[in-house]
Specification:
Structural class: mainly alpha
Oligomer: single chain
Order of helices and strands: EEEHHEHHHEHHHHH
Number of helices: 10
Strand order of the largest sheet: 4-3-5
Amino acid sequence: MTVVRRPNCTFVTEFIFEGFSSFGWQHRLIYFAVFLTLYLLTLSGNVIIVTIIHLDRHLHTPMYFFLCVLSISDTCYTVAIIPRMLSGLLSPHQTIAFQECATQLFFYLTFGINNCFLLMAMGYDRYVAICNPLRYSVIMGKRTCTQLACGSLGIGLGMAITQVTSVFALPFCDAFVIPHFFCDVRPLLKLACTDTTVNEIINFIVSVFVLILPMGVVFISYVLIISTILKIASAEGRKKAFATCVSHLTVVIIHYGCTSIIYLKPKSQSSLGQDRLISVIYTVITPLLNPLVYSLRNKEVKDALCRAMGRKPLS
């Protein structure tokens, strides 16, 4: 553990992850095998989705453009967190340098927030496709899709810079053990040796902006989508229209649900142990849902996979 000593104070230059050190080595080995398997499935699934969408002209539509961007973002998101977590399972109490911790937090926030707004853009895409189909190709042109994707990343970068700057401007004195398996805002704020009220307020405002706003847009989109679907005369037409939304809705509920529990929960009700468990879900399991849900529940993707393997499409 490295520290910098000055008169009357000591500043931390490294942190130690508590991670899963409270578990026995047998349990950690099992978790390592499970998480490594899920991680490899996530990476391979996202690579397959990006490759299929790029190669198959049938999937060159706004919906699959956003899915492709989401897969790339998810890959970057997991790469920022999971490798070090896996290393920590094999070798507990690993240290991370001050600058490395800031870098990890930056990429975690950038791509996590990017995902929130990409899911919002995908919800808007489904709204236009179902509620305004005749103008779909005009409204959701290449330029609009690119602007929405770049805007999502821009918001992620802006919010990440704000959070990282505010957190790492704080002094960290004697406390250096992060009660988590990666660098996150709340565990770091608990280690600061000064009042963090302003930082807590900034964190809450950012959390509300990146969660409530996208969730609100997605909720309104689906209210309008469902009302439009119910007006379709044929049962087959209603089923087909709703089928295009099921995959997105599944990912949205789990993604926003997990992050809201952690980041919108009052500080007084915050349990780092519980937060760590939920963090495992949205850093390890949720990224796997995108390729899994969109490949198993989406006929167009399954047909594209069949064509890529030289087999006859299912449809």
